[in-house]
Every structure is written in structure tokens, then in C-alpha cells.
Amino acid sequence: MPGWKTAVSLIAASVTLMGLSAPASARARADMEERPCPVAVPEGTTCGYLLVPERRDAYQSDTIKVGYAIRKAASPAGEPVVFMSGGPGSASIPLTELITSIAPDRDVVVIEQRGGRWSEPRLECPEIVDGILKDLAPPTAVTASPSPSPMPVTATPAPAPNGAMGLAARTCKARLTVDLRGYRTQEIAADVVELRRSLGYDKWTLFGVSYSTRAMLLAAAMDPDGAKSLVLDSYLPERSQWYDEAPAALRSTLDRLGVTARFDLAVRNLNADPVTLATRDPLTRRRVMVRLTGDDVATLLAESFADPEALPILPALVDGLADGHTDLLQPLVDGVGGALTSHEWGLYYAVQCQDEAPANTFADRRLFTADNDATVCAEWRLPPSGEEGAITQAPVLILAGQYDPTTPSAAASRATENLPGARFQEFAGVGHGVFLGSECGRRTITAFLADPAAPTPCDAGTPPRATIDPASVHFTGAAYTAAGAPWVLAPLGVFALLSLFQIAGGALTVRRDGLLTLLAGITGTVFCAIVAWSVLSVDDEVAFAVGIPPIIFWTSALAVVSTALSVVAAFRERAPGVLILPAATGLVFTAWLVGWVL
């Protein structure tokens, strides 16, 4: 009779949901498999797969494998902690050691997201990476980076906006042989519940960061008897319009940094005159060119607030960009490769297109993350999940970073009011992912695990690292280049060595017209000593990503004077021919110093 398949599916779904709510003793344990840990983990850690249905709401759904790792404590002092990374699509198991350091006296369970890197199937989507790079390619370029996927994206002339991204989305979806409707937050949360019961734990603390705060909060609502407490780092409230609110959230964060006016100037200048820079394709390692507008740079800056190493330089970086120092963008551009390969894009878009995108209008697409995601979701046409917000009565600790445009602390603070047992703590000088960038944040989590009512054990108002004052650096990309290719400092080394030889030679011949050589050696050596002293005196080496100490600029006149003295000494009457060497070296060094470094 018509509709019998639908009826069977509904019955099967009801049975599954009843199974999830039943006590562990009343139902069979889920299937589990052991496997070697795929990455380095703390001693005593074992890894495995949890075997679960791809779709719990579908009859005779395929079985998939959800990766996990468990580190058993020798003498547990309390309930276990289960952690899931964010994304969606970020790997969790590589963070086992860090989570263990936060909860050293408890069992630590780290669960992957279904479809993630250490789950099966893995919903990787290299075509997306290829599409992003092609859409960022200069307009006249022909991008030839091959995709390593079974169905590679062919090389085409640089397309109109989102041309390559649309093709990448279609290609990836056609290649993925899974039911993407099974890869959404409700199923991911149900995996967490299933894992607790399969491991035999009565209760545990659920720890999520960014996107996974949603999954962990939903898991606690689905399994109230199993949730002792929750830690929500960089909380992403339910039903938020993440894409539509992103531009305003970025602007609010820049306001807190005090760089909004300079940011506006930099974006305006780069929109009028985009910059083209070279970097590496993260998939093929080939050299590629990317063309960045001001809006593209705004996107990179927004993403950089999640990097504890990048955050301190952002005020100086924005100030330098406003003054036209576009070479300062190189560290951010080089960091894009790691960001593009840190997610499984098939899983990312399966979740975003079902759970996040439907609540947004995408009226503002200036940030290319919003533009790309709107394009992929339009191509994939997945049904919205229609999920409702989750509430728990368990104690909840919500941590927020002062400088977090991705999950702004103001939104997290407001959302705390909807969680009866929640308390909120903001951490100064921290961006997205508090536990990654703040020792105080980690200590606060440890104290909460021991006693949910425990006060913050450290000063959350003290930044873990000071931001780099724009006035404390002379803007140049030379130092960043030298960090990756030290051989470019060869002219400085040769100049310093010859300056020492000039001192020795000039001292020996000072009575025979060696005075100029001696003075050249002294001024050159003094300059090199100032360079060495100023570099060693820098408190935070991350400052070299945007420049060098200003004293090097102001004392560079010593190098010019040294070179001038060497030239005069070399070309005076009856001067020894050997003096041509320091003179020529000085000229080359001065050109290198003034023309490139400064």
C-alpha cells in the first residue's frame, strides 16, 4: 500500500531514539573495533572505532566508523572527560595530549566527528581547496594545479567569482558516495551518547570548542543522565545567524583592538588596488599566485584571530597595511595552506549546509568564507535539519576570548542566560579557542572539573601575550623571509666579517694610511653589534613577522658611513688592491640593506 516505506522508516527511527534514551543495561552495546592510533598520543592511549548507523532515521542505513582515542588514568580522581574538536571537520585525536594535560587525573576520551579525518568514510574534498585557490588566482592566470582526487578538477582560465568554487562543489559531491544527510549535528551528538554507553561510563564531562560546543550541548540534552558537566570553549549559540553576523562581529573585534579606522583604510586601498603574492598550493606544494582584494584580506584577518601566534601581530599588521606595506601579508597568505587542509571539507559543508546556512540570508558576501559557503550549499541542495536549541541542567563553564570574531564573547555571554547552570568567563588578549592560547583558560577548566563552583584560579584579565605596538617595529617583510630562508642574511654576515678584518688591518697599518680602513671597520662593526643587540632584545619573536626594531633603521647610517669610508680608502692614491673587497662588499650590503631590508 502507498506510504508503507515511510511508515517503516518512522518506526525504525522511533525504535532508534528509544534505544538512545534507554539505560545501558537494557540494550546491547554498540559494535566497537580496536585499531592503532593514527597519530602520536600519550602513553597508555588506545584507539578504536565506534560502529554506528550512517542515518539513525533511515531504515537499514549503512554502518560507518567513528574514530576515538581513550587515555586511561592510573587512579582516576573523578568522572572522565570527553572532547571533540570544532570545525566542523577538524581532527580531534591529535589534541589528546593537550586535553590530558588539562585533566591529568581522569580518563580522557577524544572522539572524532563522523566523516572526519580519523573516521571512516573520510569526507575529504580536495576539490574545494583547488577551487578556492583558483578563485583567488590573478584574473589573467591559468591555474594548473592538479587535484589529487579521483575526479580531478581540470585547469581552466581564471573564472568569474565562484566559477571554480561552483565546479569544485559539484565535482566533490558527485565523488562522495555517502548519504550526506547523515552528517549533521544531531547524528554527531548521538555518536557521543553512543560512545559513553559503549565504553560503560555512567557519567562524564563533555568538552567542546567552537562548532563542537553545539554537538556537546545537544549530546547532554539527549543524554541528561550521562552529563555531569560541560565545558564550552568559544561557544556557538544555537540558531545564530553566523554568516550574516560575521562582518559586524569582525568589526566589533577590531573596535576592541582599537584598529578599526586603520582597517577601513587598508581594506579601501586594497579593494582599489589588489595585491598579488606567491605561496604554496597545500595539496601539490607547487608555487601559485593569489590576488587579494581588501575584502579577501579582511577574511584572512578574521581567520587569524584563531591563531595564538598571529593574534599579537594583528594591530601592527593592520597599521602597516594601512600604510601600504602589503608585503606584510605574506605570513597570513602562507598560513592559508594549513587552514585549507585542517578541515575535511565534505563534512564541513554537509554540516554547514544543513544546520547553519538555512538560518542566514547571505546578503553580505564580502568575506569569501560566506561567498564560498553560499555557493557550495546552493550546489549541494541539502535539506535543512530544522534542529531546535538544546538545554541542559548540568553545570556549564563557558569560556570566551576577548578578541574572537568567530564566536563573539558578547553573544556567548547572552546565550549563557538560556542555560540554567552556566557561568561565563572572558579571557583578555585571547582569540578563538581559549584553551589553545591561554594557560589561565586551561587552569580554569581543570579547576572546574574538580569543582564546578570553583572560582577562576588565575587572572583572566591579564593577556597571555602582549600585542605588538606598531610604534615598536619598522615595517618590513624581510625578517619573515629570513626566518624561512636564513641564507638571505648572507650579505650581513659577510659585511660583519669584513668589518672585523678592517679593524685588524687598519690597526696594523694606521700609521701608513690605515686610518680610513680602521674607521670603516669600527662603524661597520658597531652597526652589526647594534643589529645583534636589538634583535636579541625583542621580547616576542613573533614581532619579526611584521618588521624589525626601529633602531636598525635609524642606525643604518653607520653602515652607509662605513661603506663610504671603505670606498674612499680603496680608491685613494697607491691604495692596496685588497681594499677593493670591503668597498665592493659594502656597496652590495648597503644596496641590500636600504633596497630590501629597510
UniProtKB/TrEMBL annotation:
The record's annotation in Gene3D superfamilies points to: alpha/beta hydrolase (3.40.50.1820)
Q: Which GO terms describe its molecular function?
A: aminopeptidase activity
Give the GO terms filed under biological process for this record: proteolysis
Where does the secretion signal sit in this chain?
Answer: 1-26
* Alphabetical list of InterPro entries matching this protein: AB_hydrolase_1 (IPR000073), AB_hydrolase_fold (IPR029058), Pro_iminopeptidase (IPR005944)
- Gene Ontology terms, cellular component aspect? cytoplasm
Alphabetical UniProt keywords: Hydrolase, Membrane, Signal, Transmembrane, Transmembrane helix
Q: Which domain of life is it from?
A: Bacteria
List all membrane-crossing ranges: 487-508, 515-536, 542-571, 578-597
Q: Does the keyword Membrane apply?
A: yes
Q: Domain AB hydrolase-1 spans what residues?
A: 80-436
- PANTHER family cross-referenced by the UniProt entry: PROLINE IMINOPEPTIDASE (PTHR43722:SF1)
User: What is the name of the protein in this document?
Assistant: Alpha/beta fold hydrolase
The scientific name of the source species is Herbidospora solisilvae
